[in-house]
Automatic annotation (TrEMBL), chain A:
It is found in: Cell membrane. It holds the Pfam family ABC-3. Its main location: membrane. The keyword Transcription regulation does not apply. This is Manganese/zinc/iron transport system permease protein. It comes from the Bacteria. Keywords: Cell membrane, Membrane, Transmembrane, Transmembrane helix, Transport. It is a multi-pass membrane protein.
TrEMBL record, chain B:
Residues 4-236 form the ABC transporter domain. Pfam families: ABC_tran (PF00005). GO terms for molecular function: ATP binding. Gene3D superfamilies: P-loop containing nucleotide triphosphate hydrolases. Belongs to the ABC transporter superfamily. PANTHER family: IRON TRANSPORT SYSTEM ATP-BINDING PROTEIN HI_0361-RELATED (PTHR42734:SF5), METAL TRANSPORT SYSTEM ATP-BINDING PROTEIN TM_0124-RELATED (PTHR42734). The keyword Ribosomal protein does not apply. It comes from the Bacteria. This is Manganese/zinc/iron transport system ATP-binding protein. SMART domains: AAA. Keywords: ATP-binding, Nucleotide-binding, Transport.
Amino acid sequence: MLDLLANPNTQWVLVGTMLLGITSGVLGSFALLRRQSLLGDAMSHAALPGICIAFIIVGSKEMLPLIIGAGITAYIGTYLIQAFVKHSRIKTDTAIGLVLSVFFGIGIVLLTYINRNATGNQSGLNEFIFGQAAAMVRSDVNLFVIAAIALLTITFLLFKEFKIITFDREFAQGLGLPTVFINGLLMTMIVASVVIGLQAVGVVLMAAMLIAPAITAKYWTDRLDVMVILSGVVGGLSGLLGTLISAPISGMPTGPLIIVSSCSLFFLSLIFAPKKGLLTKAIRLMRLRKSTSQNQVMQGIYEFIEETGRNTLTLDDLISVQPLSGLRLQQTIKRLQKRNWLQRSTETYQFTDKGIKEAHQITLNQRMLQMYSMHEMQFAHLPMEKNNWDFLSLPNSEQQPLFELLSKHELFPSVLQERTEDR
Amino acid sequence: MNPVSTNNITVAYHRKPVIQNVSFEAPEGKLIGIVGPNGAGKSTLIKSILGLVPKASGNISIYGKPYKKQRQIVGYVPQRGSVDWDFPTNALDVVLMGKYGQIGLIRRPNKKDKQEALECLAQVGMEAFANRQISQLSGGQQQRVFLARALAQNAFVYFMDEPFVGVDAATEKAIIQLLTDLKSKGKTVLVVHHDLQTVKDYFDWVMLLNIRKIAFGPTEEVFTQEHLQKTYGGRLAFLDQESNGVNPLA
């Protein structure tokens, strides 16, 4: 491994793939948020005929002309998609599908033509389909460095403008910002980041290079600046991993391994990211279910006592006063017993002193919410959303009108009423 | 000079006229409601004034000059559904966007800009939500963030597209308060509105629009049965039912 890293060729490839990962990660964030992920796919496929035409004209595999050719047809493809959507009844997905396959088809035809009329120079052109990172040489990397610096600097300088145009273009236009220019520039930069990645990753997989780091980053943050930086880091890391994994094994393709790396990072985030990850969401849902079923049972029992005046409930009573399924009811009853809110004596259940106070609070809060909803306009000033709909934590003066409404509607929780009025 | 004056604006999509020959002169310091049936061109009217949809013909001036030269003094509150609320940003940041025009290209917002944005949030009762991710806000709160963003523009003329749609009571109250504040500062506000019940309470002036301008003037003079009939036509039967005291809030 270390031997390989000492090899200057590997070093160039490593620098190259990392740079590509960083730029496509950064610009991919904007593509993703603009809902243009698929457009990236069309761009990269549309680049193929450009590469071939540039080769036919120049007659060699010089990187710069090939990239310029790729950029031109990718841009034409993108423009056509937007023009179709704007001026005809064709929808975006159809336009993308159409342009992508037609341009790719033309590219393959041209590629075949070039191979038939081989002069010996053309070997390696096929690699643009699936990418051949290992073929990167120093002059290629120099080009990438310049491109990456330019793209990242512009993104840094115009970050605020890119943000507003991505979030709300009409508003940006209303502010008098040069939206046509900014939009065109951002679009050009996304095309540029796609075409410079083609050699390493290939036209087929390039879209993933754009999307995977961005969507991974979005799982970890709620801020655009952090997302863009993280996305660049994920892209760069994928480039690094893909290259390192493929280097020691001869014949392992670097491009696909870069994609596999970034997709692995995505799946890890999908599951384990704090706040947005599936695992956190599942845990949160479980907790919510627990507390809701607890409240339902507590209020159910309280209202049973309120109605019938009986302090003890049989299991059948318990089943009838709340909507939970048998298993969940059993679990909830066990939890309530553990908290020492509910006690069991052979065949019946009853509240403990602590339990009835708790149930009173739960019921009171629930009914205050009911009053609040009925007379929402009157209570519009209350910060209910901020305090999680906890009416009991409001100052007494704010609670008073709600109490009066409860009395008026004869909904004041009555089992423990005297005690509350004492307070 | 009038804050907004238009001369024969016509907008057409695919040859179908959406609004036709609408001319009006909005007076300064008034809250002006624009009402009319669905598809009457209410949103299109303000979007065409703001240059967001192309006009087939007509002229617009803001305080006597073309809109393009007056952008800095015009604020806009688009419909809430026009953006992706899952965008990774917080409430304060959205409000700051209202200042991007004043800040200028490339330059970043400074402390003072942030302070002012925070004050705008406070004006709509949302200062506690400054750092809240925008997808975590309720619909009404999102609407208030949009209003705060327009405030941050520090404009003289405001255009609002259906700000009362789908909002909670707290937001409705905040919007009314805000409109009153703006008016007391001499600002002019044009609001696309569709709830006829509240027109008289909210607006000093009203425009009744159904592709063409039906009437425009002080609410008590123009908001009449006759004009409503002309604007809504057969659909008025439904209106009568509503105004017959069935509404429990009335």
